[in-house]
Structure formats: structure tokens, C-alpha cells
Amino acid sequence: MPGQIQDSAATEPVRRRESAFAIGLRQILRKRSSRIALVILATIVLVGALAPLIAPYDPAAQPDIVALKNLPPSLAHPFGTDPYSRDVLSRVIYGARLSLTIGLLATWVSLTLGVFYGAVAGYAGGLVDGVMMRLLDALLAIPRLLLLLGILVAWPQFSVGALILFLGLTGWFGLSRIVRGQVLALKHAEFVTAAHALGASQWRILVRHLLPNLISPIVVAATLGVAHVIVLEAGLSYLGIGVPPPLASWGNIIQDGSDQVATLWWMSLFPGLFMVLTVMTLNVLGEALRDAYDRR
Amino acid sequence: MAPLLSIRDLKTYFYTEAGVARSVDGVSFDIGQGETVGIVGESGCGKSVTALSILRLIQPPGRIEPGSRIEFEGKDLVTLGDEEMRHIRGNRISMIFQEPMSALNPVFSVGDQVAEVARIHAGLSKRKAFDRAVETLALTGMPAPEERAKQYPHQLSGGMRQRVLIAMALIMKPALVIADEPTTALDVTIQAQILDLLVHLQKEFGTSILMITHDLGVIAETTSRVIVMYAGEVVEEASVDELFAHPHHPYTEGLIHSMPHIGHDQERLNVIPGTVPAPTNWPHGCRFRERCPYSWDLPEREHPPLYDVGVNHTSRCHLAIEPERRNQPHPPLVVVEGVGAA
Amino acid sequence: MLRYLSRRLAQAAVIVAFVAAISFALIHLAPGDPFSAIMDNPNVSETVRQTLRAQYGFDRPLPEQFVRYIGRLAHGDLGWSFSHDRTVVEVLGSALPNTLLLMGVALIGSFALGIFVALVQVARRESVTDHALSGVTLVLFSMPDFWFAILVLLVFTYWIPIFPVGGAVDPVTHEYMTLGARIADRLRHLVLPALTLTVLAVGTVARYQRAALIDVLPADYIRTARLKGLTERDILRRHALRNALLPVISLIGLSFPALLTGAFFIEKIFAWPGMGLAVVNAIGTRDYPLVVGGVIIGSIMVTLGSLLADMLYAWADPRLRGH
Fold it and tell me: Model-level pTM greater than 0.80?
């Protein structure tokens, strides 16, 4: 990468070239708020990962649907129980596992689509690019929740896998516009022309030169994207067309208690708190990363 | 008669991550009533920071060090309260900047921006202040001032924008106007017009002007007395005629030699080798030593004081006590050792 | 200006046309046809089934269906809502004013409050107040709409019952009230949902405005303002804010999707009879035409919102005005 080596040599003569991940990590660890966010997020991820070991009860077990239903928080059930006598704490713990998994996988789908679509549009240029961008404008004009309603309502029933796919399918528009911009800018950059002149293949140019420049917007979009998907999934589950019951996701737990919000307040409060904490830490980290990359 | 402005031992330091930048490091000079004084020096010599210090516009991490004194109309501006200082800015002392485009607020009409000064300091109504702004714009030679006043900065040419800034600086008839490179961003023909305008207005209003520039040509055209700054210090001070006829400090000599002479077919400009050292790390001894063609062991050991070298002529150079060294020039250290970017 | 406006209008029209095409794709990408649930529903009469089949012409070739579909949309025909037994346009049309009222109040409220909060923060930059407010706006920014609405409902209608539980008016007594009492009744019902949506949107506005203000503070013209002898307060409120408002005007356009989504949840939770409540209830009844109608109307609102913001921007920035 002749152009890039020159570039980094001019700005950082001593330090050797670091990966975008290393730069991001080092920058965000400088800020106290990001360190706290990282610790909280790691804890929640750990809780989700170790759910079977931590959860005091089976999240699906309905031990006594008459005597043990709708219990307010107590020592035996710190987050209370739901109308089916299930332990809310255990469901919240398993909910962390499901909500985070959905967030990660759906974002993975979005990133793949976003990079692909943006790269194709930017590289193709001309009429193809024009049509692809107008389509993108339209997709961006449809509020994501509404688009998901339009898709999901048509399906009589669907699995968690399908939900992840649909969440991913509706989350790539913003990123692909950034990717296209980067591709367009780099297409005419000198070092790409130079690589062309040296006989490098199109594919090689794309991978070797574009991807390193795309890492930072992708990392930022991924972090904020996971937060967004978690909120969306919860909202859809709350509306009854998200994660199919009886699986426990944070939105599902709130939905289970939504008929009696006033009496079953613990069913809304606790899963929501976990959700806010997760989303907040992801937002803090995402913004810290964006600042870190912007400052470079 | 006491001078209008009297600066004594002004130190303005910036507390940066790289260390303490001693951008202005013990500067003293006076400006008399109605006098035009120039400060000349390369960028980074501390001339702009001196100007901003007079108006107390130094933002953290910079600060004016205790012990510095800036006396103006009987008040010490260093210790003056914020509210009183505010009444001086734009009213008794005003300033004209280098970049007239970015110095004007893009979302207000230029007339409003000039009028604002009169509204704050003279308590004029919006309407009266605007009329006064139009009058002042007319004084600066702004064509069709009435219409121009309603326009926005982006609709004016560079020269007109500079006239707006001058109107803004003069609307309150201040005692002192600081002009920081007022013509650098302009075309050559406009430059001459603006300088003529400043000289003309100075005569008409009796305003004192502090002209800050890197261009000795501007100094020769507009000022009566010159202060040469280098590395945060005053290195030479004299009347304009004296300075050009008998420059004493090797730095001043270098500046004069590097001026392009119209009519002379110069092979190349004589540029002073090297650059101004970093303000976080001024060299000990004479700060110009490494770039100086005469330096010897004394400047290396001892920081030179300001010597009297003539009538109202001072110079911070040890040549004042060993003048015969001027006959033995040698390549400066930066050239010999390749220090800095020669 | 006129040329800019017509170009922007043409752009908006293209976007809406693409949205229509996307909605057609939604209908046809579903397994079988999206009305299978309706078709199997014993409560749906045979006439409705016939109407639906004819309307969407599922027996015809796809291109023909597409042309017919777009043609109907162009005539303002969004189809038939069987759960309401009215046209989708009638259902959404009667609900739209309530949604616009909710969004309008929240838009104005959140921008006014958000700009104020940012001004307070920037005036005391890096102080305890600034950091505390940054924390609050971050929490608001990260809060799922529906969860916050549930909490507000819980606290202000059940635990401290000072507001009505839901609806736009009192269902029993409203008809018998005097005009003044009716207005008061409406306002009493509006306060809680509108405030909830406002508070949810404040976080974004305040964070955006704070960043925009901090961005313009190093500008040369701020130094000029200081040089003129303006107070720090006037510098911030007049010179900095006036410039830093420009990016926030763009935010108006960008915030429409979030406001609309927020309104959907809030209408559901506070039983506010708007477009969102109609569409969300259509999920339960599988009233697909109504959902797709909501998608189209919602997208048009977003498109018009961003058009409005762009026009406002062009008017507010003298560098664009008159060009």
C-alpha cells in the first residue's frame, strides 16, 4: 500500500501502523465513561453467556400456576413472578442471552448487506449507482419499525431465525450510504490508480485498499446497530410480533405483564432497566469510537 | 504626557500537553496618543498573542502571568474586572483581523454586525445604530453603503469585508486600534487601498494604531516606530527611518535583506536560514543564536539584555558590546549542523 | 430558491414512488398471499374476500398487478380495512390529526427544551451541571420508547393518579360538557402522551445542539463578538446559537422517523386514537391493508418532514437564501 504507508509515515513517524481495532480500543479506554461502560457491558454479556449457571430457576418452568403466579419481588424471587408463575429474574437473565444474540446476529446481517450494496453502488457508478441510491432514499424514508411491521404482519408465524434475518434486512441502509461514499472517494484516490497501473486486479484493489478504510465506520455502525436492534426487537416483541413466546426476551417479559401494568410493575421495570443499561453502554462506546476515529 | 498604552514585562504562557509554551516572554513597550507603532516578526514570534493579551482574549490553556502590566488610560488591563474589560473592548480598544471572511458572522447582515458595537457601547436603538453603521461604512469608502449594509458577508468581496471590519473597529472612535495582518489575505491593489484608508482614518480620528505584520513593507508605509519581535521577546525597537537605515539586531538585518526590492533583479530572496524554535523550548542564551551569522560564545552563555544602541534605539544583541564581530560573519549553526528546516 | 425547491419536490416524488414499489414488493414477497389469514378468518364475509381478491388481482400477471396497484395509489386508494369495515384512507385519515397533534407538540416541545438544555450546558461547559445533564440526555437518548411510556403511565395514572389513563377525551362525560370543559378535557388527556414523546425526543436534540454549539465556539467570528465587548451570554445566545441552529434544523427532518415510531408506541400505551393505534391494533387483527397503508402514509410524512426541514434550512441560512 504505497499511498498509505507514506501517509502514516508523515503523521506518525515513530509509532508503527496499528490496526483500527487497536486504535479504537486504546482511544476509548482513555475515557472514564467508556471504561465504566465496557465493564457494565462485559458483565451483562457474561450474565447472558452463563445464564444456565446463574439463573436460579428454569425460565420456562411453571411450578404452580395458581399459588406462585404474580408474586411481587421477594427473597425467593427478587424480580417477582409472572402470570404463569415463572421466575422473572431467571427470564431476564435468559432474556439477556437472547436479546444480545439477536442484536449481534442481526447486525452481522446488516453489515454484510450494507458493505456489499454500498461497495457495488460506489464501484459501479453511473446509472446503476443512481437507481440504487434512489432506492436507498426510499428505504430510509420508511421508518424501520413500520417497515418491519409491513414485513412481519404478512407472515402468519416465524422463527427467531427469521426475525433475526428481517431485523438484519432492515438495518443496513445508513451504513451502505457511508460505504458508497468511501468507495467513491477511494476509487479516484491516487494510490488506487497506481495499483491499477501496476496491474492489480479489481478484486484485489477492493479488498486491499477499501476494507482498511471502511473498518472504522463499520465498527461504529456495528456498535450503535446492536443497540438499535435490541430496542427494536423489544418493541416488536412488546407489540406481539417479535420473539415467539414462550421464549424469554426482554421485550417478551414486558409484553407478558403489559395487560396488568399497574399490578405487575416488576415485569416492566426490571427487564427494561437491563435493556436501558445495555443500550446506554453500547451508545457510549459507539460514540467514543466515532470520536476516536474522527480525531485521527 | 503619559503614553496611551504602556506594557511592562508582559508574559503570556500556554500550559499545553507538550509543556509550557512561553509565547510572549517579558515584552515591554509604549504607544503614544495618536501614534502608529508596528510590531514585526515571523509567525510564531508572539506578535499576535501580544495583541490578544492587550484585549485579554487569551483562552485557556493560555493565561497572562501575574506580574505582567498593561496600563491603558490609567487602568491596569491585566487586573481589570471582566465587566470593565468588556466596556473597553470594541469601545476604547478595537481590533482588525487578518481573515475578514471568517471574522464576520455568516448569518447576520454586515450592517447589523457593525451596528451591534454601537448598540452595546453607546446604548443606541437598533435603528439609530444601523444608521450610524451605514455612516461609518461610508467613511471606510464602502460603495453604496446603504445597500451593502443589508447584505451578508458572503455577498461582499474581500476588500469590502475588510472595510466592514474596519468600520466595526472605528464606529466607537476608539483610542487604540490593533490591526493584525489587516491586508495579508487581500489582493495587492486592495492591500494598498486598505493601508491608505487606515492611515487616513488614523489622521482623521487621532486614533493610535498598533500594526502587527510580518511584512516590513507595510511597516514602512504606515508606521512611525517599529518593534521587532523574535521568540516571544522584543529584540529591537527604533523609529522606522532609523531601523531601515541602521538595523542593529542580526534578525532585523535578515528581515530587511529578505524584503523583495522592486526594480532589482534579484537572483533569489535572502531568506533567514532555519525557523523560529518551539515556544515550549526556547534556546538558552540568545534565542536567535542558532540562526545568527555572528554568534560566538557570549550569546551562548548569556541571554542578551536590551542595549541602548542609539537615540531611542534598543537592541537585544551582544554585538552592542563587541561591534567588531559584525565584520566576521560565518555560516549559522542551523546551516552547519542542519538543525531545523533550512 | 425556486429551482432548489422544485428539484427537492421532484426528489420527494421519486422517493414516494419508490416507497409505493417497496410496499408492492412487501405484499408479494409474503408467503402465499398476505390475505391468507384473512381468507381463513370465518368472520370475514365472502363479499370482503371478493373485494380483496379483485383489489389486489392475485390471479393476474405480476406486471399488470403492479401497474394497477400504483394506479390505485395515485388515486389515493389505499385499499379496504376489513377490521374497520371502511377504506384505509378513511381510517387513517380520521386518526391522522391526532397523531399530527401529538407529534407537533412533541416536536416543538423537544426542540425548545433540548436547545435550552444545551445552552445551559455549554454556558457551564465541563461543570458538574454539564456532566449531570449529559448523563440525563444520554439516558433519555437510550431509552426504549415503549418502556418509558409504560413507566410514565404507571407512575402518573396509577401510583400518583393525576392524569387520565388514556384516550383523547373522557369516554363517558365528554359529550355532556360545555365547550370550555371539552377543551380542558382534551388538554388533560393530551398532556401525558405529549410530554412523554417530548421527553423521549429531548435527549437527541440536546446532545446534537450541545455538540453543534461546541463546534462553532472556536470560530473566528465568536472571537470577533468577544472583541466587540459582548457578554459571554450574548455571544452564546446570539452569535453561537444562531449558527449552531443550522445543523439542528437538519435534525428536524432526521427526527421524523423516530418521532413517528415513538408516537406509535405512545398511542398504543395511552390509547391515544391516532394512526399508530390504528396500525398497531391492525397487527392483532391481521388487517394487512391497514398496516401497508400505515407504512405508506408514515413514509410520506417522513419525506414531507425532511422536505420541510430542508426548506427551513434554506430560509434560515443567508448563504442559501436567494440562490
Answer: yes
For C225: left if phi > 0, alpha if psi spans -120 to 50, otherwise beta; the answer is alpha
Q: Is A36 on the interface with C (CB under 8 A)?
A: no
pLDDT tens-digit readout, C101-151? 999 999 999 999 999 999 999 999 889 999 999 999 999 999 999 999 999
For residue B176, the cross-strand partners are: B93, B208
Give C212's contacts in chain B (Cβ within 8 Å): none
* B216 shares its domain with B253: no
Is the pLDDT at C258 greater than 50? The verdict is: yes
Per the domain annotation, does B244 fall within a domain?
Answer: no
Full residue range of the structural domain in which residue A269 is found: 27-61+77-295
**Across the interface, which of C220, C228, C319 has its CB nearest the CB of B97?**
C220
Q: Determine the residue among C215, C222, C224, C249 to mutate to test chain B binding: the one whose Cβ has the most chain B Cβ atoms within 10 Å.
A: C224
Residues B24 and B164 placed together within one structural domain of the fold: yes
User: Judging by DSSP bridges, how do beta strands B313-315 and B307-310 pair with one another?
Assistant: antiparallel
Structural domains present in chain C: 87-320 (1.10.3720.10)
C298–A272 CB contact, under 8 Å: no
Touching subunits of A (3+ CB pairs, under 8 Å) are C
| Count of structural domains, chain B | 2
The 10 Å Cβ neighbour count of residue C173 is 11
Query: Where residue A272 sits, what CATH number does that domain have?
Result: 1.10.3720.10
What chains are in contact with B, requiring at least 3 Cβ pairs below 8 Å? C
CATH code, domain carrying B92: 3.40.50.300
Report CA-CA distances (Å) from C13 to B135, B161, C19, C310: 50, 41, 10, 15
Same domain for B38 and B123? Answer: yes
- Is the Cβ–Cβ distance between A216 and A20 less than 8 Å? yes
Assess whether B213 and B284 both reside in one domain.
no
